[in-house]
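Problem 12. The chain below contains 352 residues. Write out its predicted structure in token notation.
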Amino acid sequence: MFRPRAALLALLLASCSDASDASPTAIDRPAVPWATTEFPKLPEDVTDVPEERVELGRLLFFDPIVSVDRETACASCHSEFWGLSDQLPIAVGHGAGSLGGPFREGTNFGRRNTPTLFNIGFRETLLWDGGESSLEAQAVLPLLAKEELDLDPDVLVDRLAQIPKYVQLFAAAFPADPTITIDNFAAAIAALERTFVSNRALYDAYVRGHVGAFDEELVDGMFRFAEMGCDECHSPPLFESEIFADRNVPPAAGVVDDGLAEITGLPSDRSKFRTPPLRNAHATEPFFHNGSVADLESAVEHELEQSGRPFTDDDVHLIERFLHRALRDTTRAAARPRAVPSGLQVPEDRLP
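Solution.
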């Protein structure tokens, strides 16, 4: 267990006052309420790929050629402007025009809230129900979903093969196997998604010793986050985990959704969903698998209620401030291209 917050704050202040000869922004390991661990690294066998493959993945990610209506792209629901999500309660698939993010309106609704893609490469299981473990396999699923892209993979391959620029791009991205195939399509998307790393937040600077990255509110919020047990599931440094739990959040209206039980077949797993990441939570509202909780403060309050621990409004506020300010870093979302090889319109996002 960690020492009381007040004692650790005193230790932190003492370390600053005693280090007159040290850099004011490079004090050794400031006090934190958990065992600090280095941010993980992806294995070289999945990251040592040609830059051309990542670039191909970026263009495919933003190209609506991947959908039945030629208007919906991966980026329509996983927009860099909205934390690689869409800020909709439930995802809206094809048939919603070229608008992306929270401005999509249509009738092809999914069952669940769109998860962020930040740090997706570090996850052992994917999706709210943990139904996939491979980024490559996951990249194909939206094509097969009637309410998402609804495009036969063979049709997509034929479309891409008719565009000379894509023929060139696939050859450069896969020099040993330049053929346009659905496997190569999936590998390019996965290569891009592994670059969506978020580890440049204020929290990351702070735990590396840059104590000036945090003010008193953030230090207090971090310790309150730990005291209330939030880190038991949302474990640093990723602030997520492979834990599946029933958080007393019902399915979306009119939707049957048994969560993890749909994968395991176990009645005891009904209504269990994966622990979502808290990095960039400031940009990915609304929350939970059904998108039923509108804002971050309400989500914190809901979780504290579920914990069974007594809490105050101050607890909610400080934890919300910690999440909102200390864990935000969207710097490595893919840059939106002005044009894509298909010549189709790149999804648009109207910024507030």
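Discussion. Strands lie at 244-245, 273-274. Students who got a different answer should revisit the alignment rule from Section 12.3.
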